[in-house]
């Protein structure tokens, strides 16, 4: 009886945590979109974001997980390095590059493919078993097909504008419409694959290293180091990109550093698996679309 109640509480907790983190991500997408327009380098943003997240999470990891951290081995360390590469380096940079070519709403909409990619990867790696006779498994298969069809419609069909834009934003929106949408879409899709791969590898790593806070801090630290190396390679001609003033750029870094979802996703991943986490990704699109129309005066087309 007590065991069943505990399992129900854990499941409800997983739902609440995922809804909260997706809403937090939606706010981050909008703030970062504004900051990118004001000259913030997405490389520098990723570095500062993960440095801040490391500084915030590390003290909790040192105190709360003292004495129960597993021994660090070379395979686990290499997995942590790969986690830092998949999310902070590949996914985030391609995501924000794609956002610059498209829009915040469109970028968040491509995350709809994360459940499909994650589900397919989980099946291939035998982390998820599919029995079509079971309703929940049939639902996952149908959901995967729907998300792929939806992503194709979203990419290939714009349709009429269904939201009115304010006149003083009209020129900027018209210029944005002429950007390289296909190139931006390709970047976003590759980033989405990397995002799904992160969930899969995280579910594997956390079983071998079940210290969620420490694992999160290490992933953030490795991500910061790897992105910093990439930034020096890509932005070496202009060292002024590292400067951040008291404006929306600093707000974006501070907000996103505090809304790092690796720990929350790690806890949920441990309880429910990677497919459960990815299934909530479309929620951020809905919230981002609303915020984008209200605060960024984005045009919302029927296809999206």
Task: Write up what this structure looks like.
This protein is mainly α. It has 13 helices and no strands. The chain is globular. It has helices at about 1-35, 40-65, 75-100, 105-110, 115-125, 135-155, 170-175, 180-210, 210-235, 250-260, 260-270, 275-280, 280-295. The longest helix has about 35 residues, at about 1-35. α2 (about 40-65) runs antiparallel to α3 (about 75-100), α2 (about 40-65) runs parallel beside α10 (about 250-260) and α3 (about 75-100) runs antiparallel to α8.
Percent strand equals under 5%
Shape: globular
Helix content: over 70%
Please report the number of helical segments. 13
- Average pLDDT figure: 82
Largest sheet: none
Q: Write down the Rg.
A: 20 Å
Q: Report the order of strands and helices.
A: HHHHHHHHHHHHH
Task: Name the quaternary structure.
Answer: single chain
Low-confidence stretches: 167-178
Q: Tell me the structural class.
A: mainly alpha
Count of individual beta strands: 0
